[in-house]
Structure formats: C-alpha cells, structure tokens
Design brief:
Chain lengths: 436, 173
C-alpha cells in the first residue's frame, strides 16, 4: 500500500479525503460528496463553465491548458454524441499522483466526470486507467457500480431528466496512450498512435464526436472547485495558476511522497523542507521538475522558483505532471540521460520518423558514450539529433524525448566530456543510494 | 458468440466478454481490455485466443495482432505463474532498482524476459509503473510491492512460492 505523507505547508483540497475511507460511497457522501454534482445539475452548463474559468484550474496532465476554456470549445449543438474522457493512463516517469486519487477517492473522479458531462452536454463518460493499475481499476469499477445503485449515474441522475453514463476502461501498457489523440485511438480498439490536429478533440474526438479529455487529477479537482467556488479556488494558487497541485517528490530525498501544495510553491523549499532535503546529507546536483520529459534544473535555478506553469516555463523547463525527481551529487548524469532516453525509445510508437529514429539514435549514442567509447563529436551529434526532433512530430513524445536530452547535454557538458576517450564512468556502476 | 461450446474461455469470462462488446458505442472498443483479460486467464495470447477475440469483435485476426503487438503488457508466449516486473525507470533507479533487479536475477537464475524451469516465475525489467514516490517498486502480476531493497527480494519470492504451494500448483523443479 503506497504510504501517505503529510506536511504542515500542505493545503489539502484534492487530498482532503485521502485515508478517510472515501472509496466507500456512503462515507464519500458523508464527507460532502456528490453535492457539487447536484449543484451543477441545478445551475446548468454556462454557470459551471464560468466557475471553472474563474478557478484558473489548468490541466494537470502536463500541458496546463485552462480547463474551463477547454470545455467552452465544445460546440453546444452537435449531430454526433459528445463524450467526456478521463485520462488515467498516468505513465510519465516520476508521476504517481493519480494512483492515490483512484485508491483513496475514486468517487471524486466520477463526480468530476459527471460535472464535465453536464458542462458540455455529454451523456457518456469514459474513465481510462493504465493496464498496470488493475487493483485501482477494480476500485473504480466498484465505485461506478455503487454510483449507479444510488441513481447518481444512469438515465435519470439524482432523480432528474438528465442522463449520464460512465464506462471504465483498461489500457494494456503504453506511455504513448497518455497523449489525448492516442488515448482515443486506444479506446476505439486500435494501436495508440496519435492523430494529426486539427481537428481538435473538442470538435472531432472519440468516435468522431466532440470530446473533452482531462487528466484524472484535473477531473478529481472539479468537484472541489464547484464546492469552494471558482474564485476561492483561484485564490489559493498563484497568478493565472489556480489552486493546488499534487506534487510527487521522488528520488534522493529523505521523505519522498505526494504532497498537495499551492501552485507557485517554492521548489527549493519543497525539496529541503517538505521532502526533508537530500537523502543522507548529500548535495543536490539537479532536479527534474515535472516528470521525465521536462528539462533538468540546476540547484542555482531553483532558489526562487515558484512551481507553477508560467514560472517554471520562464526558467526554461516545464511544470509538466508535477513529478519532481531529485538527483544527488553521487549520480552520473550521463547514465540518467541514458535511462531517460531508453524509456522514450521503448515507448515511441514509431508513427513519426523523427521520433522513431531520433530516440533510437540518441539511445545508441548515449549507450556508447556511457560505456566510455564516446568521441567529442558525439556530444554535438546528440544535440543535433535532439534539436531536429523538436516540433517535428504529430504528438509531443518526440519533444518529450528531445527536451530533457538537450537539457542534460547543455547543462552537464563537462560531465559528458569526463566520459570521453575510454575513461571509466566517474561514478559507481549504478546510481546508488546513500547508506543511511 | 452464438455457440457457447466453441469458446476457449471459462464460462465466467465468456459471459463477461458477451457483456463487454455490448457496452460501448462501437464493439471494437472492447478489444484492448478483452485481450488483457484473456491473457490473465490463458496466460498469453495464443493463436486460439487471437482467433476467438477476432470472431467476438468481428474483425480479422491480423487486425487483432496489429493492435496487440502495440501494447507492452500483452505477450505471445507464456510467462511464469508469477510475472515479476521490476521498474528501473528514473525514480526507481535513483533508489537502487538495478540492485533489486540483479538480486532477482541471482535468486531466480534467469534474466530479462526469462522464465524459471518450473514455470513458477518470470522476470521482466519494465518501464515506470506509477509508484515513483514509493521507489524502488515492482509488480508481481498485478500486485505492487514498494520501497524494496535487495534484502527484501527473497522474502517476496518465498511469499509467492508459499502461495503456489497452498494452491497446489505442481512444481517440476
């Protein structure tokens, strides 16, 4: 069972029912659950979308697109049925927040899905979980069955004339399916390759109908936004970045875990105070701020860095999925870069040539480099390959592979040079943890 | 399927599939979960599984294979009764996942994608399983085990050996 952590600086909104038995529907109701959905049913779509816009809630999957705005793009009238699709394919290395949401608060996902459905006029929602999350899928399936039994889902939700159905779906192992158009392909029973955009899913999505796709954390946040009021939720966060975020701090820290902190919370403080600092009293070498695809940051770059989409963007990286990976000074960055690119090489669906070939060549180059057979020219070749992948693929996987690689090469060039000319890796065979 | 006796699946799973294909706006949406559930029961996607799934959905076997080969959890040959999947991605790597993976290799005497001679265990190095904050983590079939050390490996294997014994699984070792 994943360990829950806690820190006084946390502002528990999305996580407030964690560890309270809220997977049980009666307990969820006792804790105020499904009141937001009922309120939305009374108030109607325009009111919901206005609240969402006022909340400054931005997509928690990684892109940070404003949720209310996304919902407003769905046409009011549509010949084809509209759909809500919840993305629980959580696969970005460093990210395990949705894991806890499904485990501790599955009804918040269902309630958020209902609200999204009411906002856009959809009658059917899908909750897609990665295949590895079988035990969490079973929790979700039970929660959905309980919501049907209470009449919260079905032909007449909460005794009204409004219909809303939910279907849970299992993936079968694919990072790429976390990309929204690949997710729709997978749900349609196909290989998870991305679709070209436009048209965007809000216009032509699942089964050709207008579709809103939101990350599971975004959807689980929605009932809280409604309960608090959009403006109050916005006030918790920083400018244009409403509310809180579930930051998953992993790697070389004393107290790894998922912490719910206000948007804009200082990254240095997050590592040294919330997560207890670098493990074993070692020194901080680098931080990957938002999942493996986000460019690495150096200790001097996090001093005054507030963790929201805009500030991390300005610092040359991305807030991404909120997965903060902390790296200590006993770690070989070349090995870390190699492990990162190996992942993307494995996960590239092969649809776009720059990504398929680029990830493969980067892996080959970095493997050779780490083995001590690199030549000086390789460093520039790695840069060249990565730069030529950027922006040249259907979906962001190519960028996700290229961006961190560029970051490692640019910021740790010396460490790459230290591997040259058959020199052994200056670090241990594998990155080892401190003996504490 | 019209003829129940033709199915290679248990009555429970066959009934589940009958319901599953009706659930979606398009029948084909049942394909990916069906393949995974079929694999859970049969052990892998045998030719017979592919053929029956194709018939149930109403698409060609080639089409089923085309989709199935995309997903990393789907396999075309048997794994061990307990498939040990060790995550070595960044968060797990930083906390010693490769040492854990090596210990599993030593204890089981097989490498990546290997199956023990008694068929009880198979071993796989896998990508991120979504347990980064409780690293290093593994999955044995669908069960998570987290915050591991090389020292915890033998205990985990003993747990599953005991489970197999309790279930009366025949060991050929």
């Amino acid at each position: 069972m994943p360990r829950l952590v806690s820190h006084p600086d946390e502002v528990k909104i999305v996580t407030r029912r964690f560890g309270m038995g809220a997977a049980n529907i009666d307990r969820y109701i006792e804790l105020g659950g499904y009141e937001a959905a009922k309120k939305c049913l009374e108030q109607g779509p325009d009111w919901i979308i206005n609240e969402m816009k006022a909340s400054n809630l931005r997509g928690r999957g990684g892109a940070g697109f404003p949720t209310g705005l996304k919902w407003s793009f769905v046409p009011k009238q549509s010949a084809k049925p509209k759909y809500v699709l919840v993305n629980g394919d959580e696969s970005e290395p460093g990210t395990c927040k949705d894991h806890l949401i499904f485990l501790h608060d599955p009804h918040s996902v269902i309630e958020g899905t209902i609200i999204a459905g009411l906002a856009i006029g959809a009658k059917l929602g899908f909750i897609y979980l990665r295949g590895e999350y079988r035990y969490l899928l079973e929790i979700m399936e039970k929660a959905v069955a309980d919501a049907y039994a209470k009449g919260f889902l079905g032909k007449n939700i909460f005794g009204s004339d409004t219909e809303f159905q939910v279907i849970t779906q299992s993936g079968a192992g694919a990072y790429e399916v976390g990309e929204e158009s690949a997710l729709m392909e997978s749900l349609e029973g196909k290989r998870g390759v991305p679709r070209i955009k436009p048209p965007f899913p809000a216009v032509v999505g699942l089964y050709g109908g207008p579709t809103v796709i939101n990350n599971a954390e975004t959807i689980a946040t929605v009932p809280h936004v409604i309960a608090m009021g959009g403006a109050s939720y916005a006030a918790v966060g920083s400018e244009r970045n409403g509310g809180t975020r579930l930051f998953g701090i992993s790697g070389h820290v004393e107290r790894p875990g998922v912490y719910e902190l206000p948007m804009g919370y200082n990254l240095k403080k997050m590592i040294y105070e919330v997560a207890g600092g670098v493990r074993g009293g070692r020194k901080l070498k680098a931080v990957v701020p938002g999942g493996s695809s986000t460019p690495v940051l150096l200790p001097e770059e996090i001093e005054n860095l507030g963790m929201d989409f805009d500030q991390v963007g300005k610092a040359g990286s991305m807030l991404g999925s909120g997965g903060v990976v902390v790296i200590d000074d006993h770690t070989c960055i070349v090995e870390f870069a190699l492990r990162t690119i190996s992942f993307y090489q494995h996960e590239s669906c092969g649809w776009c040539i720059p990504c398929r070939e680029g990830t493969d060549w980067l892996k080959k180059s970095l493997t050779r480099f780490h083995a001590g057979f690199g030549i000086e020219k390789d460093i520039d070749t790695i840069r060249y390959i990565a730069e030529n992948m950027l922006g040249r693929t259907f979906c962001p996987l190519g960028d996700a592979a290229a961006m961190p690689t560029l970051g490692f090469v640019k910021k740790f060039r010396k460490e790459f040079e230290d591997h040259l000319n058959g020199k052994p890796c200056p670090f241990a065979k594998h990155t080892e943890v401190a003996v504490v | 399927m019209s003829n129940e006796t033709m199915t290679i699946f248990s009555p429970k799973l066959a009934a589940r599939f009958d319901a599953l294909v009706q659930k979606y706006p398009a029948r084909r949406s049942a394909l990916v979960p069906m393949l995974l559930y079929a694999q859970d029961e049969i052990g892998y996607l045998s030719d017979a599984v592919i053929a029956e799934v194709a018939e149930r959905i109403g698409i060609t076997e080639l089409d089923v294979r085309n989709v199935a080969t995309y997903y990393s959890m789907l396999r075309f040959k048997p794994a061990g009764k307990y498939n040990v999947q060790v995550c070595t991605n960044i968060s797990c790597m930083l906390r010693g996942a490769y040492d854990v993976f090596e210990r599993f290799q030593d204890e089981l005497g097989v490498g990546h994608k290997g199956v023990t001679p008694d068929g009880l265990f198979s071993l796989e190095e896998v990508e991120c399983i979504g347990a980064c904050c409780w690293a290093p983590a593994i999955q044995v079939n669908y069960d998570f085990h987290d915050e591991l050390t090389p020292e915890s490996v033998s205990g985990i294997l003993a747990e599953y050996r005991g489970k197999a014994k309790a279930e009366g699984t025949v060991s050929h070792a």
